[in-house]
Design goal:
The protein is of the alpha+beta class and 344 residues long. The chain is 47% helix and 19% strand. A hairpin with a 4-residue loop joins strand 2 and strand 3. The two termini are 41 Å apart.
Amino acid sequence: MARFSVVDERRLRDILAALKTLVEGRPALGEVMAPLRELLGTDKTVAYAPAPRATGLGLDFLYGDGVSVDRVAPVFDAWLGDKTFGWTGYNPLRPEPSQRDVVLEMREIARWHDPRTSPIVRDVFPLAGLAGHEQLRVLLCDGPSLLSWLGAFQPARFDARQKRLLRHLVPALRRRLVLERAIAAAPRLRAALDAALEAMGTAAFVLNVAGGVAEANEAGRLRLAADRAGTLEALRAAVRRQDVDGGFDVTVVSSPGAGEQYLVVERRPVRAHVEPRIASAAARWSLTRRQAQVLALVAQGLPNRTIAATLGIAEGTVEVHLTAIFDKVGVANRSALVARVWES
């Protein structure tokens, strides 16, 4: 595959750096719409997500560059009020697996439906000046759940370079949206950190500029207790190099009154590394076959809703299995459980 040009590489680095910098009250998608438009060399960039309401849907957010968002957003929100399904070519809350996290242009979307006949194209696109435009889009998802529709518009068809550039950004965009969703319910980032990252099933830390640990979730504290010197060395190295090749994701956090800090989250373990540990743990703790399956997915950092979808069971059933596993292992939560798996 051909390399990106020097200019494309620079613009990609700028966008990736923005996605690794978390500032309270400034969602990443709103910040990257203009740089993304410049990177792709396209007319307009748009990101939006629907949200369920008591009746129908509403607009969770709408960002764009080259589009009058302030004018379009209230109309779009009202238009969604009586909609559930059928207004676009995918399930608007839980997209079909074949369309998740895949960069597609209009002729590829046409495999499932004609995008020009969708009600949203007919009713909403003209308001945003998008009528008759080609689109290049990706449905950014967390498991089966839609995080955001993100795409670009221009009169001419998109080329291979534009598709490759957008595809290159998908993993970083997903990670940032998952992080923002995890902390969205809390009024303050510091107060939310432990509860938000608890569900990730992996060690997470906040480092200050001096390299000290200001915050850690339970899995992180357990890791520090087991090997404080080694863990601190690994965390500081990850921050120095922004962990290009290491086992952590690093996000710069800028918060009023706290200055610049670093959120360092251990990456989800690779499945090949998980399986032998799960087999050993299942035998040691006398887990049933289904309990071992649940444990394997928990150890990979997957939330309950994704585990349920993967195993074809109800989310409540996952919780029942987890409670039974906690009792057998003698732990109180999933972070301690994962730490027990990985310390053996």
